[in-house]
Amino acid sequence: MSDVTPFVPIVLDLPVHNFYHWRHLCLVHLGRCSLRHHVEGDDAPALADFLWVKNDYAILQWIYRGISTELFHLVVRDGVTARDVWTALRDLFQDNRDARISQLHTELRTLAQGDNSASAYCQRVKAIGDELQELDSRVDDRGLVHALLNGLNERYAQVATLIPLLRLFPTFAEARSMLQLEDLNLARKARNPQAFHTNYGPSCAPGGGSSSGYGSANQQPRSSTASSSTRPPGVSPNYKGKNPIPGYQPQRTRSLTLRAPTPQAAPPRASCTNSSTSSASDAI
Prior knowledge:
The chain is built from eleven helices and no strands. The protein is mainly α. The longest helix is centred in the middle third of the chain and has 20 residues, at 172-191. The termini are far apart. Residues 208-219, 223-228 and 271-284 have low confidence and may be disordered.
């Protein structure tokens, strides 16, 4: 018979109050090996049967390996069978039943998530419900969901408000799935925070100026000379400070010089006296 540790990975302990889950795993493994009758039922021990005694000792080893040292000292005795130890463990966890039920109900009403993840918080709520069921004080799914929503922290406020408004009230498993999905979304947002960009105008730039924005008395007009002086060389005149066109060469403009026309000399004009004298001499 193989070791039971891989099949029952839970260590039974009084402070943890995990008897329900530990017992469930043990019964599953014993049923697989057809040995549940060693811990259940009213059959008398078959001490004369060599195979029965061998199997009973093996089950005793499984139980001792799966409980804490404190519990081992409480239940160990000579000449006991596996059923005797099993019954002693059950009585330890179900002793003072009414007081334990009251304590569990109080814990369920006041349980808070705190810094725990959604999965760990749901697991604790489910464990309390399972133990109450083991003590014959079962809490239905609706009660577990209300207890779950009551202790959520502020990060899950949106989901806690949405779940009670659903047309069909969810089961505990459905509410747990919704919280786990919200937990994944919050973790994703924490890994990839959104970037916010702010453009400061001339009147609300950091370090001075008016925060009102437009029409500020302290606002000074921008000078085209100042903006052109900050433009990198060889960049388009339309450069606005973003994405300059590499290798841009400004076009050379031809300078047109307007010259005044050169005044021309007037033709010589004939004298009236000389012309009349020559005419008279010709007539003579």
